[in-house]
């Protein structure tokens, strides 16, 4: 049996751009299950259509894209969000990632780059326009350098397997799942499973929190 096509939803307030993106994705074999033109509509339709990947503009009427991302990922941590924006401003990129976006692509990207980014986002790979990945990793490190708020009676940290720790260390170094799989000579799916298991054990929600956890413990320097 063939795998089910990736379900995608496109959110942008410019109808011609939105329709063109949806058409390109559909022609590539992706399943475009919904589109939306404003933030409130995006939240309603995404909850009904249950896409695997949300291709999201940030500059939306009624509700900004970062708020849409925060609400939908908060309600469904398995949802992957690929921001597709005209803005390459560092503040916009970081705010999107902190809100739960998996990747960030500029609208100047080619159709082929967009399609590849959607497919990679669907399996959890962080996808960024060249130059932005280093910015995000730098922000991870800055956040990790800040003292974490103390909590009384903090429970003992859960035990990770040697392989989970190894994968976590490579995630903290900024490697993609594909790069990790090649380095450890395991499948892409196995890397995904280790990351999901680690997120569950640590009670974290996304890669942003996972990288911060790893850097706070110095795993990126080992």
Automatic annotation (TrEMBL):
The modification 4-aspartylphosphate is found at residue 57. InterPro entries: CheY-like_superfamily, NreC/VraR/RcsB-like_REC, Sig_transdc_resp-reg_C-effctor, Sig_transdc_resp-reg_receiver, Tscrpt_reg_LuxR_C, WalR-like. Keywords: DNA-binding, Phosphoprotein. The keyword DNA-binding applies. It comes from the Bacteria. Residues 7-122 form the Response regulatory domain. SMART domains: HTH_LUXR (SM00421), REC (SM00448). Residues 153-218 form the HTH luxR-type domain. SUPFAM superfamilies: C-terminal effector domain of the bipartite response regulators (SSF46894), CheY-like (SSF52172). It holds the Pfam family GerE. This is Response regulator transcription factor. It comes from Streptomyces polyasparticus.
